[in-house]
Amino acid sequence: MHIAVVLFPRLTALDAVGPYETLQRLPDATVTFVGHQRGEVRTENGYLGLTVDKAFDEVVAPDVVIVPGGIGVLDLLEDKVLLDWLRSVHATSRFTTSVCTGSLLLAAAGLLPGLEATTHWAFMDKLTELGAVPASTRVVEHLEQRTLIAAGVSSGIDMALRLAELLTDQVTAQAMQLMVEYDPQPPFDAGSVEKAGPLVTARAKELFQEKD
Fold first, then answer.
1. What pairing do the DSSP bridges indicate for beta strands 30-35 and 54-55?
2. pLDDT grade for 100, boundaries at 50, 70 and 90
């Protein structure tokens, strides 16, 4: 089972690392971090570096593709190398997946035409521009098209567990959940725009602008 995780400058770390931490536990799984060129890329705040193991042209037929999000996605929506690679590997992958704004890259590659998709709540309108249909769902799956799309950041772990079930079985997926002790009990109930309300949402937008 070969899993390819896309890396690029200014990605969101947990978008890649959350699914990685879950799926690297699949029986017989190997994980390759793939990007434009080998070497380090820095996450969106510049504090954390992740390493690209192989360039896109070195990874031609992964079983699973994971495309994380992050503000760096906006610089890649017309990136021919990445979009061509996504189209090519999706032709043979068992599943092509995304987390957060990574779905914008799937849509830009033409993999979500007229299909429901999700992304971070702040970028839903961009999905429409790219030909997908925004859905306020934590994970959207299109099994016939072999795509799974997760909303913002932490939902990538939910998507990875569902993917693990599809690739193996429910008991194995549940065992993987137990191994990472994924049992969310947050101190607040503000994990969606609907729950957070206008005051918290406004503060979140301020924080986005401060970090951009």
1. parallel
2. very high
Containing structural domain, residue 160: 2-184
3-state secondary structure of 200: helix
Q: Is 100 tagged catalytic?
A: yes
pLDDT at residue 133 greater than cutoff 90? yes
d(CA 86, CA 88): 5
Q: Compute the distance between CA of residue 172 and CA of residue 44 in angstroms, rounded to an integer.
A: 33
Amino acid in the structure at residue 40: E
Question: What DSSP letter does each residue of 13-55 carry, written as one string?
Answer: HHHHHHHHHHHTTSTT-EEEEEESSSEEEEBTTSS-EEEE-EE
- CATH (domain of 176): 3.40.50.880
How many domains is the chain partitioned into structurally?
A: 1
Catalytic residue among 100, 105, 139, 164: 100
